[in-house]
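User: I'll paste a sequence; please echo it back and then give the predicted structure.

Assistant: Echoing your sequence first, then the prediction.
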Amino acid sequence: MLNYIIRRLILGIPVLLLISAIVFLITYLIPGDPAMVVLGQGASPEALEAVRHRLGLDQPVFIRYLYWLRDLLQGNLGTSILSRQPVWGLISRSLPITLYLTALSMLIAVTIAIPLGVISALRRNTWIDVVCTTWAFVGVSLPGFWLAMLVLLCLFGVRLQWVPLQGYISPRDDVIASLKTMILPAFTLGVFLSGPLTRYLRSSMLQTLSQEYVLVARAKGLSGPYVLGQHILRNSLIPFITVLGIQFGYLLGGAVVVENVFALPGIGDLSVSAIGNRDFPVIQGVTLVVAVAFVLINLLVDIVCAMLDPRIRSTGGSW
């Protein structure tokens, strides 16, 4: 297992270098002038040129990338053009909020998806299967922003007033109050995510149910719960966990709408603000951190899948 992990880490190095180059190039292609954002529309050409020189924007893109990569290898993500604060400081304040939201959302999604996926596969072509698959299709089809507004306005927030509508309270200050502020956005993302997870688990279990080793296990007289847990569910979880890891990485960078609707100061809110202000160092830092987190999550998923199926270790998995 250790050799497998080391091999995956080595394979991740060129991936991260490629990601850093793509992130820098995409940021370079964003229209707009950061110097104009700093000085305003009425700035003189001389003042604009001085700001561009101070920010290094007058240098060739390749030279700027090498300087950025050098600072990156030293743990320096740069300084915000607008606020003059270190980029890592801004990210370190926003990232825990997004991770908190993502973890709660994944917990809700898994709590919904696993029972529905298992029941739907075991009761295939029955009315229970129809209900579960209908829920899965509804969850996939619902737009995240629409569901967020529906939950906010029509259900728990405005009508019932069970929880606060917007804002954020750290769990270090008050755990109960923090959960109340996070339950609506987490429920929104969890319901949205439970649909595809239910479908993947149902499909994976249907394939596993038709395998010969399941038939042999039942022919031996093994109990139903034992066959379900040790043979069916364990092997069906491998593709499910893979999709779960991908969705976790997606939520880190894709919860922008929900964070804005519920006024959560997470990575999504920071990204929108940075893009609107043409704050290139913040855009690069946020995108790179999310990409690195995505690679690490995929590494963790590969390790979990290798623990569930030792055959993956011998083949090295897929990157």
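Residues 148 and 188 are 6 Å apart (CA to CA). The chain has a mean pLDDT of 76.
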